[in-house]
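Session log. Operator J.P. requested a structure for one protein chain; no other inputs attached. Running the standard single-chain path with token output.
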Amino acid sequence: MDLKAKKISSETLFKLVFHILLWTIWIGLPFISADDDKSLVFAKAIIPATLTNIPLFLLNSEWLIPKVFERKGMATYLMSLLGMVVVFAILRSYVKELTFPPEMLHRHNDIFWAIVPALFTSGISTAYGFITLQLKQEQVRQLEKEERLKSELSFLRSQISPHFLFNVLNSIVYLIRSKSNQAESVTIKLSELMRYLLYESSDSQVPLQKEVEYMRNYVELQKIRFEEDVDIRLNIEGDLGSQLIEPMLLIPFVENAFKHGVGLVTLPVIDISLKSEHDTFFFTVMNKTTNDPAEDKDSASGIGLRNVQRRLELLYPEKHQLRIEQFNEWFKVELSLKTNN
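Structure written below.
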């Protein structure tokens, strides 16, 4: 709301400054060029007639162009503008008859001196009106684009949360059934995951440290679940506190590794590493895969990976590199991302 108000006030300020400069220069020119008493008298007498150009300018730029031209097209606009020029030319002549000294009327009240200023005013106001109209249309397009991006990101986030929560709850159910003595510690870790998921992931940016802590809790749950059956490695290096990222950006890669890197895989390994350097971090997730071609194909096509790829494209264009590859019995994801500090 504050940003929108700031944009509106800046636009109003621009218009105000433009009109002050335009009409100050227009009214002041006869005084600047006056070199004798007659010229000075003329400069004073022409002021009321010059002021009639202001409503002509405003009616054209603020009403005819945005209302008539936008709704009814160029032909109707030009006819309306021509009619307005005639009306204001007549008005200008009438005002000059009231304000000019009699000896000046025969020199400055012919049709030429009535029509030309009105046409000149119309030309300037038309250029000004179409430029401001184009700027407004561009602003509307940008706002619509931003709203579409926000809607798409909101939808992508709404997919991540239940998808991830479903997998976590499945793990919790297994742990409680098979390792009831660890139910308390498991429940505590789940509450930490839920707190982040429900409250902090709604923010547009979170500290990288919080995202990493969330990932640690998830990995710890998986270690409790799989014990020695899966070789789980987690390595974090560098200062994480000064970097901000989109929440729930890293966990889909980790979740995908656990989804496809255990089960039928022989001697499963999950290797996760993150290294932070200044405003960039490097994130790698590797997992061994099964020799089943159907399973390998599915491992790279889950909702989570497609989701996070799209979010990276929307939020970090030109600021990230994502490489997903499969070689021999390994599936590997590498992400380098320049964060917003």
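Operator note: The chain has twelve helices and seven strands.
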